[in-house]
Amino acid sequence: MTRRLIFALTGVVTAFWLLATGLGVLVMQDEFNEIFDSALKETAGRLTPLVVDHLYRLDDLGTPRQLDPVPLASADDYIFFQVRDASGKVLLHSHDITAKAFDAPLQRGFHDTREYRVYTAAAVSGTIFIQVADPRWHRREATVEGGMALLLPLLILLPASIFAIRFIVRRMVSPVDTLRQAIASKDSGNMAPIAETMLPRELQPIAHSVNRLLGRLRSALEAEREFTSNSAHELRTPIAGALAQTQRLIEDLPEGEPMQRARKVEASLGKLSRLTEKLLQLSRAEAGIGSTETTTDLLPALRAVIEDARRISTGPSRLALSIVAGATLERAVDADAFAIAIRNLVENALVHSPPGSPVNIRVASDGTIHITNQGPVASREELAAITRRFARGRTNAPGSGLGLPIVVKLVQQMNGTIEFLSPIPGKTEGFEVRVSL
Known about the structure:
The chain is an alpha+beta fold. Helices cover 53% and strands 16% of the residues. Strands 1-3-2-6-5-4 form a 6-stranded mixed β-sheet. A 5-stranded mixed β-sheet has the order 8-10-11-13-12, covered by helices on one side.
């Protein structure tokens, strides 16, 4: 919009300047013609008595004579004259013109020829005619030079006007850009109202409408998060109790069909417990817990998550943590949110890799965290789909399809980036996740 406005205003200014220049040239041409015509009449009036007196002193008028230069007809002037008798014969002429008669009738007044603008004056009862002329190209030259004098400043003023218009337009539309950036920054983690008082009066209704919409969205999201969080909290205790009772029931039951049913109930309760835990994590991620103003060393949290995963996993030796010497993870990130993200990535790697295969966690020198595991190669479509909620790839492993979406949400809040690669770079299979904070 700013670029189009600058071009439009510059084009309008240029068009008006050219129009004014054209009108000025027309006016100048009119005025120049009046001045030149007045000069021809004045010259003819002054030459008449001098020429008549000079003719009476001449004895022979048979051939045209050239009048000696006089102040009125110097070599630097553009005015020429001829003296002719009633038959049209040239009796006298100025020093800088030939004896060939002007192609103009012997009548008082102005007449235009192909080359000259001629003024004719009569003397001695209409027997002597004095014709004063100036070249038409001289008048055109004066008009062109005057027009160029008006047009040339445009070459300087046009670039200057572009910069001036650009500066003024950008300054005037800067509130629009401020409002645009403020609206663009709003997401589920930033629903703060836009400051209306800092905007021009014309934009305040827009900001007010956006704030009302943000208020309704904020209320809806808060209600959704509160419901998810409360539901998860309320479900955790009874599910844990039901799971414990089911496990005790399994211990008391003999082998047989009742035992198998009890184990199916245990598996369903375990799945429901994991889903509840993911929903609680999702509600916390939606609440925007990822970033903080204080810098925290995340390496102790990383080690604690790995140790915790080793205790609860079926194969503690599968997890291998390596930290490059000198690597640091001091970031303005909430340690709890970081732990949730790493725990989900490690659980995902353990569940979706072959039993007994290693899962490597490496912290590079720049702080990038690499988590790799073995497994079949995932297609591009599968890599794009796994970050959607409740979406799962080609696997029979247990899961809810919420782990990776939670991780992506938290990493975005931490102002970091996450990459999913398959196969592992330099290998023909496997899966790698790179997290850079």
